[in-house]
Design brief:
The chain has 826 residues and is mainly alpha-helical. Among the domains are: 78-110 and 141-339, no CATH class; 357-466, no CATH class; 688-825, no CATH class. The chain has 39 helices and two strands. It has a two-stranded antiparallel sheet. Its main location: other.
């Protein structure tokens, strides 16, 4: 066998793409020819003309009937309509429904009416039909969810067709049937979906009736135009014929026997009261009273929700009244309404003489709109101070008020409120009460730059912790406070300089301490390098506490990755400037503190090698320091338990050693890596295909590195390649494909070492390369040829051992290409 001579420089030039100077910058924006406007109008099919079209809610597929081009919304209420539409979507997503829905006999009778029922039943899944035909003793049956929705779609389609054909009676009957379905709460989690679909149909009825009455008010029977009703018209502007038609519709609805369908239908037509009276708000009060007669809690709650929605369609409706109607039952609503008056919100003279019930005040603060809480803050504070009974802890009311005030971008009297709250909470000795209240006001203190209160808070926390210690709930509140504090300050040095901050941090423990430490490290590593020695020492202690908490807390392996990554980022950010020895000493301290985590030891090796390279660049007493860094890395690598990481670190450190001219150190590191491979267990590498591929990649990189690593004249020029080749015989975990690829890599290595000029050399001047050391030595060439012949035989054996014919053919083709590139064809 004779190696083929190669000219790497000529080959590189032959395979390089031809280059020539470009006329212009290919990355610049191309020139665009501007076409003058010739006055031709372009029709964009995606742009529609403006209209007041109000379609139905897109909760189901279109059913084919025309959209209703009317709207009963009051001008300026577009936001309310959008909120209602998104809320209906939220309802359907929040309560997922199973495939089968339980319904009562009454609902079953309504759904059975119509021509489409039998067709839908025939299309239902047979297993669902078996269940849907079984009635229980209580008269409950189950039908498919899609079947129920399809019946509602059919009702909606029939309703629109009947109205367009002029059959108002049929349309009303269909709407009544749909409204009756809302009395059946046996459907369970399907009720929100039923509510959305049913009210969609009833809103269609309201829109159509509104348009019909409005048309009668604006046009005579013969089509003569009478007048155009303004947006804010009054009842006196409406003609008698239109009023009679409107009143007739309300009479028809009033004749419905069932209470709940009657309420829903009148709510759908609620805006039409504007044609009859100037104050339709009175109808809301009457409907609210009627809703008190709905016994079922679920049906009653959704009915009141729809009352609040329909009230938004009326002009000049008090938003506070709408909110109270929507969030409370009638009894609680009356209680809250009376609380606004009885507790003196708006009457500051009434605080001292009224009864105080903490639980009622808590719900009052919770349910009132944010703007009302903001405007009545002083009155609410006075009210809380009067309420200190057994029904609810007073600190919870202070806490809730703080969170409600944080919802507003700008709060009136905020400085006065915070002053009073801090003064009150400072008198409490219990740490739990103190932390609960302070946690709610920390954001307000930061937003309004009340730094004096921050000092008082930290002082108060420190005193109470020293006296009684902390438990679980208190740790959670303290964690929340410290995380908010960390997010407010920009510089970590300002946080560490706060009185009692480090003292409080040292007294924390468990998972809360771990989370706060992670936030500290995250903030520290988001900026540039960390150069201050004091800050480095504090962050080192924080990292050490975080590492110790990981050992104490029973967490999974994947949960260890984020804390370890945080500490690794901190180590990477540390810089001692020109004091390299101090930096290396810091890495030694880190190895002693974090020696149990592979990822951290890997970071330490990278940092040590980086220090060595920087010392080589500066060329100031670099040799001794370089040896210290290499020794540190070699000791650290030996303690890494992950095989693939260990191999990569050995190779990286060997490259750094060779860069500094330490040939013997580099050769020893490569031998250590090979020895590590020889002692590896079968299970360590065969855990998955990723580990095996990374091990193969490492062996191929070793072959590439051996080209520039000078051979050992004492042990033989190919001593290291032979040691690598010995792995093929000693390791049973290697697959035939791995063996074949390693053999190809070693054949290429031998062919490259035989060349007169190597393709690349070590950048360190003074390091003799293999072509200078051995080229022209016949013994050297004979040793390379003998070694290559042995490798080729091993390559053939590996190909024959592959059981798959396809893989065996691919391996043979790869081997032939390698041999053809390396040897002369005889």
């Amino acid at each position: 066998m004779e190696f083929r001579a190669r000219d790497y420089k000529a080959e590189s030039e032959a395979h390089a793409l031809p280059r020539k100077r470009a006329d212009g910058d290919p990355l610049s924006a191309p020139a665009v020819d501007i076409v003058e406007d010739k006055g031709e109008e372009f029709f964009d099919p995606l742009r529609e003309p403006n209209s007041n079209v109000v379609g139905s809610l897109d909760t189901e597929d279109d059913i084919g009937h025309p959209s209703v081009v009317v709207s009963t919304e009051v001008p300026g209420q577009e936001n309310a309509k959008r909120e209602w539409t998104s809320f209906k979507r939220f309802l359907m997503q929040r309560f997922p429904v199973s495939k089968m829905v339980s319904i009562s006999a009454m609902s079953d009778g309504i759904l059975r009416s119509g021509k489409g029922y039998e067709k839908l039943s025939m299309s239902t899944d047979p297993d669902e039909l078996d269940d849907s035909q079984k009635f229980s003793e209580e008269g409950i049956r189950s039908i498919a969810r899609q079947e129920y929705i399809s019946r509602l779609k059919e009702f909606k389609e029939k309703f629109a067709d009947a109205w367009q054909s002029g059959d108002r009676v049929t349309s009303l009957k269909l709407a009544i049937k749909v409204a009756k379905l809302l009395t059946d709460t046996s459907v369970g989690q399907f009720y929100p979906t039923l509510f959305v679909l049913a009210t969609d149909i009833m809103e269609m009825l309201g829109d159509m009736v509104w348009e019909r009455v409005k048309q009668k008010a604006e046009y005579a029977e013969d089509g003569t135009f009478l007048c155009s009703l303004p947006a804010s018209f009054r009842a006196d502007d409406v003609g008698l014929d239109a009023k009679e038609t409107c009143n007739n519709w309300f009479c028809k609805i009033g004749s419905v026997k069932e209470l709940l369908p009657r309420i829903y239908l009148e709510l759908a037509l609620l805006p039409c009261w504007r044609f009859l009276v100037d104050q339709p708000i009175d109808s809301i009060q009457r409907l609210v009273m009627m809703a008190r007669g709905v016994a079922d809690p679920l049906a009653c709650s959704y009915c009141r929700l729809y009352i609040a929605r329909c009230a938004q369609k009326l002009p000049s409706v008090d938003t506070g009244m709408i909110h109270l109607v929507s969030i409370a039952s009638s009894g609680l609503r009356k209680l809250l309404e009376s609380a606004v008056v009885e507790f003196g919100l708006g009457n500051t003279e009434a605080h001292g003489s009224n009864p105080s019930i903490s639980i009622i005040v808590h719900n009052l603060i919770k349910e009132l709109p944010v703007d009302m809480v903001n405007s009545k803050t002083i009155d609410i504070i006075n009210l809380i101070e009067c309420c200190n009974d057994y029904t609810l802890d007073q600190c919870l009311n202070y806490r809730l008020l703080g969170f409600r005030l944080s919802e507003s971008k700008y709060s009136l009297h905020i400085v006065t409120v915070v002053d009073r709250v801090i003064r009150v909470v400072s008198q409490k000795d219990m740490l739990d009460e103190y932390l609960k209240v302070v946690d709610a006001y920390v954001d307000l203190i930061f937003q309004n730059h009340m730094d004096d209160h921050l000092v008082k808070i930290l002082d108060g926390i420190s005193k109470r912790i020293c006296n009684k210690g902390m438990v679980g709930d208190e740790l959670a509140c303290l964690q929340s406070i410290l995380v908010k504090l960390l997010s407010h300050f920009k510089n970590l040095e300002d946080i560490f300089s706060l009185n009692h901050f480090l003292e409080i941090l040292d007294m924390m423990y468990g998972r809360s301490r771990m989370i706060v430490n992670m936030h500290i490290l995250d903030k520290a590593t988001r900026g540039g390098l960390i150069c201050d020695p004091t800050t480095i020492q504090l962050l080192f202690e924080v990292s050490q506490a975080l590492n110790d908490s990981i050992d104490q807390v029973n967490v999974r392996d994947e949960d260890l990755q984020q804390p370890a990554r945080m500490i690794s980022r901190f180590i990477d950010k540390v810089s001692y400037g020109a004091d390299r020895e101090r930096h290396l000493a810091f890495l030694v301290e880190c190895r002693r503190a974090f020696g149990s985590t592979n990822e951290l030891k890997e970071t330490l090796v990278h940092s040590s090698n980086s220090l060595a390279v920087k010392a080589l660049i500066e060329r100031k007493n670099h040799l001794d320091f370089l040896k210290s860094c290499i020794a540190f890395s070699e000791v650290t690598i030996s303690s890494v338990t992950a095989l693939v990481r260990q191999l990569k670190l050995y190779l990286e450190t060997a490259e750094v050693a060779l860069l500094g001219g330490l040939v013997s150190h580099s050769d020893g590191l490569v031998q250590s890596a090979i020895s590590c491979m020889q002692s590896v267990d079968l299970v360590d590498v065969s855990r998955g295909p990723t580990d095996a591929d990374e091990t193969l990649n490492f062996l191929q990189k070793i072959c590439g590195f051996l080209i520039i690593l000078p051979g050992n004249p004492e042990k033989g020029a190919v001593y290291t390649p032979k040691s690598l080749f010995a792995l093929l015989n000693s390791q049973s975990w290697m697959t035939p494909r791995m063996r074949a690829r390693i053999c190809c890599a070693m054949i290429s290595l031998s062919a490259t070492l035989s060349q007169k000029n190597l393709p690349y050399h070590a950048s360190k001047s003074g390091i003799p390369s293999n072509d200078i050391l051995f080229y022209g030595n016949s013994a050297y060439f004979g040793e390379l040829v003998s070694f290559s012949e042995e490798v080729v035989r091993k390559l053939v054996d590996a190909i024959k051992q592959e059981p798959s014919p396809v893989a065996r053919g691919s391996m043979a083709l790869e081997a032939c290409n390698c041999i053809a590139l390396s040897f002369k064809v005889s």
